[in-house]
Amino acid sequence: MRISELSERSGIAVATIKYYLREGLLPPGERTGPNQASYGEQHLRRLRLVRALIEIGGLPLATVGEVLTAVDSPDLPMFKLLGVVQDSLTTPPSAASDAEWERAAATVEAEMARRGWDPHPSAPVADTLTSVLVRLAQLGYGDWGETVMPTYFDSARAIAENDVTTALAAGGRGDIVDAVVVMTVLGDTALAAIRRIAQAQVSLELLKNSGESPR
Amino acid sequence: MRISELSERSGIAVATIKYYLREGLLPPGERTGPNQASYGEQHLRRLRLVRALIEIGGLPLATVGEVLTAVDSPDLPMFKLLGVVQDSLTTPPSAASDAEWERAAATVEAEMARRGWDPHPSAPVADTLTSVLVRLAQLGYGDWGETVMPTYFDSARAIAENDVTTALAAGGRGDIVDAVVVMTVLGDTALAAIRRIAQAQVSLELLKNSGESPR
C-alpha cells in the first residue's frame, strides 16, 4: 500500500509516519519509484506498536527506539525482551536514607525468597516496590510490608500467570510485545479500578454484617 | 503546643499551616492569648492527612476540603466515607462512542453481577474500568474483557479484603481515612510493581520449562 493508505488505515498523519521513517522507528518501504514506496501489513503493525508505546506507555521516542531494537534482535531470548519492555515502563524510585532503604529492600527480598522467586531479573521493579515500602514506613505504616504485601504477592502471581499466558498466545514476536505493553499499562489502571470496586464491595458487606446502615 | 512546635513536628512550614487554618482545612487551635493559640495531637494528625491527600493523592485543595468535610460528618456511615475518599482519587474516564461504551459497560456489569456484587456504590470507578475496556477494544484486545478480567476480579477481591481489614484496624475515624488514602495510592504502585515482578518470574519459569535459555 502507499503511504497515504498506511496513514488512513493507521489513523496516523503522513508527516508523522515520515518522521518515524527518518528516525528509524519504522523500516523503509519497498521502493516502487523515485518518490514512491510500498508498505505492507508489518508496517501497519509496527506503527500500532510505536503508538502504544508513546500514547499508552508514555515513552519518549528514544526509549521507543530501544524497545524496538530489542524487538528486532532475533537472538534475544523472549525473557530478556519482556524485561526490556517492562523496564522501559518502570518509574525510577525516589530517594531514601540508607537504613530505610535497606530495611525495605530486605522485606522485598524475603518475600521473593519465601516463594522461591529469582531476584535477578526483577531488579528495577523491585526498586520501585522498595521505594513504596520506604514511603509507607515514613508515613507510619512500616508493618504493612509484613501484613499487606504477602496477599499482594499471592494475588499478583495469579494475575501474572494469566497476563503472560494471554500475551504469549498473541502470536508472533511483534504481537507479543504489543500485547505486553498494552497489558502492562492498561492492566495497571484496570487492576487499580477493580481493586477499588472490590474495596467498596467488601466494606459494604462488612457494614451490612455489622448492622450499620450501608447508605 | 504552639504553632512553631506543630510546624517542627509535622515538617510543614508555619506559613503553610496558617494557610490551612485560613482555608478551614485545619480546625483553629485553642486561644491562649491575643496572638497565640495552642494545638493538640489531633492537629498533627489532621496535618498528616492533608499532606497525604495532597502529596500522595495529588488532590487539589478544594477536593481535600470535600474529603475532610466527609471525615468530619459524624452521621455519615463509614461506607459512604470510604466512597468519598475513593471517588476523590478516581481519574475521570476518557470519551468513547455510545456503542463501544455500552459494550464495555455491559462486560463490567456482568462480571460484578456474576459475583453478586452491588453495582450501586462502584459507579465512578466502574466508569474508569469501562474506559479501559473501551481502549482495549480499540486496540484490538476486546476479548480480554472475558479472558483476563475474571482473574483480575478474583485477585482484587482477595487484596481488597486485606486492604479493608487492615484500614479498619487502624483505629479511629481519622486514622482509617489516613490509612485508606495511603493504601489506595501507594497500594496501586506497589501492586503494579509486584505484578511486574511476578510477570518476570512466570515468564522465566515458562521459558525454563520450554528449554529456552532464560538469559
Can I get a quick summary?
Chains A, B: Residues 1-70 form the HTH merR-type domain. Chain A has helices at residues 3-10, 14-23, 41-56, 61-71, 78-88, 98-114, 123-138, 144-147, 149-168, 173-209; strands spanning 30-33, 36-38. Chain A has 215 residues and is mainly alpha-helical.
Could you explain the architecture of this structure?
Two copies of one chain form a homodimer. Chain A is mainly alpha-helical. Chain A has two domains: 3-75, Multidrug-efflux Transporter Regulator, Chain: A, Domain 2 (Orthogonal Bundle); 88-209, no CATH class. Chain A has helices at 3-10, 14-23, 41-56, 61-71, 78-88, 98-114, 123-138, 144-147, 149-168, 173-209; strands at 30-33, 36-38. Chain A has a two-stranded antiparallel ribbon with strand order 1-2. The model of chain A has no long low-confidence stretch (mean pLDDT 83). Chains A and B meet through helix 3, helix 5, helix 7, helix 9 and helix 10 of A and helix 3, helix 5, helix 7, helix 9 and helix 10 of B. Chains A, B: It comes from Nocardia rhizosphaerae. Chains A, B: Keywords: DNA-binding. Chains A, B: Residues 1-70 form the HTH merR-type domain. Chains A, B: InterPro entries: DNA-bd_dom_put_sf, MerR-type_HTH_dom, MerR_fam.
